[in-house]
Design brief:
By secondary structure, this protein is mainly beta. It is about 10% helix and about 45% strand.
């Protein structure tokens, strides 16, 4: 069984931008059920179908399969729940880890998040200077939640990470 173990953080500065090359990501959900999400993602010229189980802390099951890009586009345009997630993803190496920084656009404009994948939930990770508050356990920051209630609908308190 495949497991995803990741922590998610708010980003507090733009200093990471010069450290990597952004890649355009477009994704949508066929299911946003809390027990299972089914996502279609086009990243660059590749497409993927991903199935994720319920989060248990920072851990959940994850299965990802490459699919034809033209079929991924049809799934996003015709079957995916709206709104779609539009973002750029920049990978940045820091202290032996690869950080993925997502700058959101469209209805989630203004949100910038960073994720880091870990070998275990208790692994210690050194935080880059552009990392702010951890939001791993705040479900509103999940991409599936952002596709249901986008950042543009959040209160100022929610946007402040409260």
């Amino acid at each position: 069984m495949a497991l995803e173990i990741e922590r998610k953080f708010l980003v507090i500065s733009d200093n990471w931008q010069r450290l990597g090359t952004p890649e355009v990501v477009r994704q949508g959900y066929l299911s946003r059920d809390i027990e299972r999400t089914v996502r279609v993602r086009i990243k660059g010229d590749k497409a993927f179908l991903t199935i994720k189980g319920r989060n248990e802390g920072a851990v959940r099951t994850e299965f990802e399969y490459a699919i034809p890009t033209d079929e991924g586009a049809v799934l996003l345009d015709t079957l995916a729940l709206k709104p779609l997630i539009e973002k750029t993803r920049t990978k940045v190496a820091y202290a032996g880890k690869i950080w993925e920084i997502d700058r959101f656009f469209g209805e989630n404009e203004g949100l910038v998040l960073a994720e880091v994948e870990l070998a275990s939930e208790n692994e210690t990770v050194q935080l880059p200077p552009w990392i702010g508050q951890e939001v791993t356990h705040l479900t509103r920051y999940y991409n599936s939640a952002l596709s249901e209630r986008p950042y543009c609908e959040w209160t100022e308190e929610e946007k402040a990470g409260l």
